[in-house]
């Protein structure tokens, strides 16, 4: 059974030196064995007075024997450890989260303190009670803070209260100065001393076997102050003070049969009218509730040797209600004369010793009819529960509000129980820690949910759990929240704070969203993929939060490999099942991504010199030139989509993603395009690439084309003939699967403002068309061709005369003719554009197409104007008689070969190149080009309307 | 990830007694598989909580019963939802959490007063485990015991994560004091109750209860809190102004079996439970001085009409009750009726019946002495307790003597007046009374003169029938006169005797005794036949005596006596010519003799005779059986002196003589057979001289003797079949007054068949069944009739629009159903309800009926029963916890105040700032 380990936070320890000192002091120089033996015989007496002591110090005594035997070996480390161990098995009292530690032995005590910035305890004081060491043997101790006179929230000093065998209670300061003592009994030892603070009140209890004193805290505070002042001033001795000042207290004798073992102050309770009626109903059907006002009770849970648990409700005295005001309003306690007298602080020797007081009967509200006997008790931080261990190896939780047992843990013999609290904002959760020494097991449980939130085995049974002690102050405000801590003392005597994260309290399903909410916050701060992350992730309770977290984590990943590993790890988690198909889907998608990326590596050494499509040499040269120019751009993004983003946005199981919708940013679109078209540049076989990547993409063809255009337009990739050929092949594939793709590419080319891009695209389209036609010719019979040509005739009315010159059966499509002219013209356009530096590309090709000649001349003119070119240069560039150049009409091919296709730096050279290329702007070439453009524009304008 | 494998400590030891109890309880929870989430029930299906299983656990010496209450859909089509989907560690279910069912149920405001299950009403819970003492000696009486037991239960619930609430009865189970608990480990609900005779007056109104409710949740009223949702129900019981019904006696009502209520009207109070559903705090106010809960503006009413009387009886119950073993036997059974009458009746010195038996001839019977006219009638009648005149005229009425009706009518008026006296009746009461009278005593003119089934009882319109009805009526009408019934019987006997003497018709006889009628009826028929026989005999004597000229001086010849005999009276006892001549002496004509009639036999007599015959040996039996044949032979011989056996056969048994062959049948030729022997032994004696076979005098006297000596019980027993038949017939008659459904008709016929079988077999249990049925149906009829009248009165008083007839009928039907349910049906079945909107016509009619408009504010505040449900969402114990619903149900009755609280608590968190 896998459970969370208990979160132990190293707190502090006791150095050997300190331990030795403490031991030495406590045992005294005269540590002879006879006294220890006496103690042994005392504790095994079983007499009533020893009863309680036995339970408290049982283990202590066992250890003592050990130690006594090995007294000689005390200098070895081993004995030091056992000694230290022994130390913490003594009657320990803690205060303020174990900042102070009180160790008592016989009539001696030592106070240890751990300063906040250190991790070792230091001895604050070593002190003993003077007088008869037997009668003054300390049987009970208590440590608490005394609030400041002026400001009750400030700590004035630490008070140590010690009860002795002869019924005295002594009060010391932390420095070991005795302030006051009073005798509460002349024949009984003090069973226990308790200073209890609950949210509505506080009380100081002196417990005996048949009853207990409730010492009025205000009176106690006044007394202690007086003593401090008087002793500091040296006006009176402790003895004088103690004999003159009276401590206000009340002896309560509850209605019980057995001797008291424990008394737990469970707070003040004001029953509601309804509750009054309920208890009246228990009495009799004819009972009546007449009292109009509701009484306020101090409630106690008392365990005795005969009764398992008795609930004592004591009507609060009038003066105690004053305390409510103190606590409620934070009033400083400056006792007026009247009140002083009332509290018996008057200096007149009217003092009545506490042991002279007559007992007040305290009624029992109810009792639990169980045949157990309590061993130890521990009240929960919110006062609603008391954990009790008994001698039958049980840990029992009692609901003190309803006075019922609510849980029984079986099989925890000699367990130590303690409470731990945890807060989240203003919510407060409490946990019960149980240390079962027989099983060396430390467990933490929620209270009513009966959920073991963490557990772990500890190496040794020589450990213990002590509560940290509250930061409680006499007459201090107690509504300030303090965490309630417990400390685990390991076998080496090291203190470990038991830290309970709040989310562990959220165990029930109704709370799981809250639990996950807390955990998710933690997850945000952790790096995805770390062990912590996986640990927290597997702790999530709700499926939805797991799913979302999983997805978010995926989205943060950058490489496919990382993603693969991540998913594999998720799948190995025990609760991965709740993610259902999600990891598989993700894995598939990652695989797809990985494939794309893997195939995108550029092929090396596979440079193709020429186009595979029998292009005109001039076209080839122009294209080559432009490809080179295309690769020179530097303003574009070359990153591609990361796997996380890919998973975030592209769901392969999706029907269709509208990548051009507003949800897709331009940037992301580009990244996607970069990713999916990366294989074009690689060595992936185009057919396979098309089938495995583009076909499977949930993006329709048209959008693919648009993405492609986007990629070309926005990203820099060197294009060489190999890539060019691959692009053509790709388009052939696209056109095959959906006719009209090429048309749209054409249009995009025409709409492009980048002439180079336009030239490339147009060339690609031209090649693709040609390829398509070849394929068609191979595949289809002549009838199809006739249909095709008819269709084409309708479309291209302007070309009728031209078409007549071809043979009828040979299907001619003008879009695959005259590429050379087109290219040359566009090249000139590009050249012309490069003449003008500022905004060279603000016109679309289609705009230019109709007036290439004028556009070129315009640009030349602009250049001339802008750069104020001299006339003679012009004369030189543009000969008056173009016929000179045109003279050699016969050898067109030759002329073309002579043309230099490049983008020269010098603008004059540019003009020369242009002139060289299209000397006769109204001659054949230009006409054909214009016709071509007109034709195309006409076509597209018609289609545009359709769209 | 590092695996931290630490097994939980599993210790199954059981040490203390309480742990024993806990283990046993845990076993039960495991058995029912109650761990984990429970299914939430659908709202739109109606459920009824049913104890589905019971276990007994001992705790120390005591034993506790653990009942499992589960909801069962009223409509069996809606099967229970299966238990919540299995909760595994990696639940594939999405963010939907099965909620804590108890919390959902408590928050459900639909669990209002519509639910009749007590746990739904009290705590809003529809599934639970109930712990109650197994026997009354081991009740959980004090808080310690309850806390200890509940604590152990809580321990078990927490440790096995059982979310079904467990309730524990405290003290007497009937006190309904309950403690309970439910938890899902995260939030818990504590159920507690207050049951006191009276809670303080300060807390008896809604305002105060609301404060108490909030106070217990640890808060005061604040504007920032969500408002409390409330429902309330006030039950007011108002008397229906109505005097007791007084029966108005008329001649007609004497003729039929009485119906209607026996002591008082079925209903005298109207109970209206007015419900206000789901209103918000502050929308309605009720405090000690003021109440907004005006009954006329409630959401709806649940109306009941009740009787404050402990038991309701109809007349039929009264009539048929005497036949039930357990019911009253007011009059000593060992005395005959005459003795019962005591001083009110002195028997005349009648001649002993046996003296009369010695008289052989009619002439010796001194008829005239008793039949003398003009003698004072009361001389041999009764003189109390009822007016003898009434009795006598009633008896005359029984004998269907038309002339006496006026006297009866007059006497009845006197009787009515007597019963009226002493009480004040307003005009309205009288009108009401008359109305009720006509309604109750409905007579169906078309009522068929036939029975629903062939009962073995007196036929309708016979004297016996009327007598039985009259006796029953006497018992009912004159209930305060317990001697009326025997008085009537005695008067009847006197009249009967008188009529017998006068040879008047006392009973209708058709061709011999009708064996399909009851024993008493047969006796009456026998009596009539005796009278007939006597008359005939007298006539015969006359003729015989006149023929021999020895006239009987005592015999007063009756002039009117003119029998259509064909022959003059003669000595030979010849009746007429047979139309043939004798075989032995062909010249002589054969006469048919006057023969004796055979003795008519009632069932009882047949039985007795059979018994006698069986006791005889063969010879004697044959002789006895041949008695009539012998008499015939003697008569034949006297009439035909020369006749032979063959002649006798020709007359008496023509089959045995073949006229064509003149031969006697072989049967008769057997030598020495009984016929021949008898023939030979027979002397020629005419009938008039023969010993009488049908000794009518003897039989009649025997009957009279029997009647005279009869105790009242005997008389009642004789009447039993007829009374039952009459009751059942009357029942169908009165039912027809408002139309009888086919189903009812079938049921009637069925019960009639039961009665037929009962009359046949004299089966007491069947009679009881019939009696029960009759009294129930009559009671229902009475209720209906009463309600019809109430609604009619209300209609007259209220303003239009009046409720439609069908509405009224539906309301009446439902009200009767409720009453029937409360009277006779097991409490297992859910009580039907009549839900009425106060402002509907029917509601206003009811208001007018109970004068609900006139209720004062103080009356409203001090209703007979006030119930409230409070439901509030409030964060408890601190403001940072989830809001939870808390619920209180307060039930304040006159003599018992109960509060039931379901208070939620978030048990894991509290507000840190308070620590």
Automatic annotation (TrEMBL), chain A:
Comp. bias regions, Polar residues: 43-53
Residues covered by region (Disordered): 37-57, 777-808
InterPro entries registered for this protein in UniProt: Rab3GAP2, RAB3GAP_N
Protein origin, superkingdom: Eukaryota
Domain Rab3-GAP regulatory subunit N-terminal: 86-463
Bias type Basic and acidic residues, positions: 788-807
UniProt-listed PANTHER family: RAB3 GTPASE-ACTIVATING PROTEIN NON-CATALYTIC SUBUNIT, RAB3-GAP REGULATORY DOMAIN
Record-given protein name: Rab3-GAP regulatory subunit N-terminal domain-containing protein
Organism: Caenorhabditis nigoni
UniProtKB/TrEMBL annotation, chain B:
Domain annotation Rab3GAP catalytic subunit conserved: ranges: 572-707
Domain of life, per lineage: Eukaryota
GO molecular function: GTPase activator activity
The entry's keywords: Cytoplasm, GTPase activation
InterPro entries in UniProt: Rab3GAP1 (IPR045700), Rab3GAP1_conserved (IPR026147)
Keyword Phosphoprotein: no
Protein's UniProt keywords contain Membrane: no
Subcellular location: Cytoplasm
GO cellular component terms listed in the entry, alphabetical order: cytoplasm
Family statement drawn from the similarity comment of this UniProt entry: Belongs to the Rab3-GAP catalytic subunit family.
Protein name: Rab3 GTPase-activating protein catalytic subunit
